[in-house]
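U., I forgot to send this yesterday:
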Amino acid sequence: MPSDRSDHAIFEGLNPAQREAVVHDEGPLLVIAGAGSGKTRVLTTRIAHLIDSGVSPFEILAITFTNKAAQEMKHRVGALVGPVAEKMWVSTFHSACVRILRRDAHRLGFPSSFTIYDQADAQRLVGYVIRDLGLDAKRFPPRSVHGTISAAKNDDVGPEEYAARASVIFERKIADVYREYQSRLLKAGAMDFDDLLRNVVELFRTEPEALEHYRRRFRHVLVDEYQDTNRVQNEMILQLAGDHRNICVVGDGDQCLLPGTSVGTPSGVVPIEGVQIGDEVLGAAGSGALAPARVVAVAPGRYQGRVYRVRAGGHEVVGTPHHIVPVRVVLDPDHHAVHLMEREDRGFRIGRTTSVRPNGRGRVAVGPRVRMNQEHGDRLWILGVYPTAEDAAWWESWFAAQYGLPTACFHDGGRRLAMGQDALDRLFEAIDTRSRAKDLLEDLDLLVDFPHLTTQGGARRQTVNLTMFSDAQGPVGLHRVQWSSSRPEVAERLRRAGFPVRAGKAGSFRVETVRRSYVEAVELANAIAFAGGLEVRRRASIGGQVWEMLPLASVRPGMEVLVSDGGERTFPATVDAVEVAEHDGPVYDLEVERLHNFVAGGVVVRNSIYKFRGADIRNILEFEEAFPDTTVVVLEQNYRSTQTILDAANSVIANNLSRKPKELWTDEGDGHAIIRYHADD
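Result:
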């Protein structure tokens, strides 16, 4: 019998926000939870409450990312409701997909006894395909090619779509491998790990009866660690919940600032832990003036890990690595930079350069930008800035030796280098630089989402510019979304997706519009990026200058941030030092309407309450589009909303050097890319 006891023992110890999430009635629910906020307990207690309220355990599907977590969840629910919990499906994505496909794989042409290829099996088959297609295994290493195919599958891109998107010969060859690889898997009655997910999505798309069966079976779908879902996993979730809409997803929020951080308000500064919903705080408007805006959410949480202290102009802010700040990528001309550079068709390399150098047009520019242009690079991360060439050379050698990454150039540029272009090509074909660069990025808290520099309209990568406050209409400003390129195939993809592509100068194409709502601008930019296979470059136009939106840990000494000394305007200040420390305790963040930024410790920072670490922004946007009436509960703060602002944000490490004020050189740059998460099963 369903229980109507509101004081049931399962509710003991829940705070108001946790209880709200547990007892939420039917309909979509998004739970944002910081570390230590009890999200696992909320999920398990919600399942127990559903069962206690009369929902059959057979009708519940709970998804986690590891087998260990699945077993722990089932054990916790069992402790609350007894052996009936054994009747639920509590599993990883992969395990759930295997069970579905054992029943319905025949609809896709596979036997129910299909074989599952592990990573080694899959890479071996890719190697056979590369050999049989007459491709050079050094130029197309099986592990690297399989990784590219895996990423495409997790992004829900099949062989034909991948081939249609291929813009260079290298990509077209990989498309050939992808197509033949899938053909051989089907003939062998086999699937790799990525196929388990994508084939279920394909099954639900093409076989309505199968989808209807599982929609009836699973009347309640719950997903833990939602911030780690890839595109295919998210599509599967949306498919299952598209009818009954009883879906609950729980994700880690990105609460970022430490207690004691002073927040500017119209009546003076207050500690962040004292800010309440409805209070007004000060933030930067497009003109550079400070403007008041209302706080619509407060999210306290707990965090254990590294925090970054940025000192600039007598001000300092301390926060977790993921907090976004407006930054100008400028460097001290007397210093030297060590960088990680990527070229899409080569890989990654370590390099160093002077902070400024001639750009070949009679002017000087930021040194890493000049080096990237010379080598036709696509993206670049500044690993450190050092006072002497000797220091930079030492760190360049250390990074190269520690991670096995080359220091050789991508492109000889007609120069008399020790290695010509053929030798350089062979070098990068022989080394798996991508996995080694991934290790480096992870070890330094760097993620691919926020390079310091990126190309805008190159042959391999192109960007959509999303500029906050770009149009100076009104007291705050409008937000501009803009793409331009001379590539007709990208323009055609955007046209087919319904975007208004206009003719530009000299045979180019463009899409450009403004939005009053930054939320709408973010959604539009990401939709354009997805349709065109582009990346989003986030910036802000404040006080007549364009600022890159970078994580706090991306800030380097010598760069500039926006500060306020308590007057009526913000102004640029040079970063004097970046320090790293450990923190284990409470953290806070705010959501500020209209401005989406506030002054913390005298430094302008973006609010980050809805950024999920590592999340594919498209997943969050699609969730909102599919369920516009979603209830949002921020744990430890009773907050409900039907609108969320979700920006992908990840971190890079800063080298800690104090510096004295110097003349600075500025540059434009930065970029955004999509990362994927490989689930453990």
